[in-house]
UniProtKB/TrEMBL annotation:
A Pfam family matched in the record: Glyoxalase
InterPro entries: Glyas_Bleomycin-R_OHBP_Dase, Glyas_Fos-R_dOase_dom, VOC_core
Top-level division of the source organism's lineage: Bacteria
Organism annotation: Cohnella xylanilytica
SUPFAM superfamilies in the cross-refs: Glyoxalase/Bleomycin resistance protein/Dihydroxybiphenyl dioxygenase
Annotated VOC domain residues: 5-127
Name listed for the protein in its UniProt record: VOC family protein
Length: 131
């Protein structure tokens, strides 16, 4: 069976030039006409300018959810996650959720999230199993 190599999130944005600048300058993506990718497509977006403001529709919170995300990316370690948080923060990311830690029977989960100029929420998280 064939394996999927990567995937990208398609985002309809209100201002393509503004979004491209944010994804490149703040989120550290390589950006071309409409692709914004980071870390060899481990984080990828296709940015498409909407015809009107109503075309931009970030996810809304679902039944039983406490948080809403449009994209969720996994980072290997908590140290990597902390480093990424500091990097994005220093570049002027729109912070949505500061790093939070959750303890479970299996271990510890840590996550944070940022928003883009159209209010899409991009979350990053990592897990650490109990020793």
């Amino acid at each position: 069976m064939s394996k999927v190599q990567f995937s990208v999130q398609v985002l309809v944005v209100s201002d393509l030039a503004r979004s491209k600048a944010y994804y490149q300058d703040v989120l550290g993506c390589e950006v071309n006409d409409f692709w914004a990718v980071r870390d060899d497509f481990r984080l990828g977006f296709k940015l498409i300018e909407g015809k009107s403001a109503e075309d931009v529709r970030p996810n809304r919170i679902g039944d039983g959810q406490e948080k809403v995300w449009d994209t969720y990316a996994y980072v290997e370690t908590h140290d990597d996650l902390d480093e990424l948080y500091e990097e994005l923060k220093s570049k002027g990311a729109i912070l949505h959720q500061k790093p939070e830690v959750y303890e479970f029977d299996w271990g510890v989960w840590k996550e944070f999230s940022v928003k883009d100029p159209d209010q899409y929420v991009i979350a990053f998280g990592s897990g650490k199993k109990k020793e």
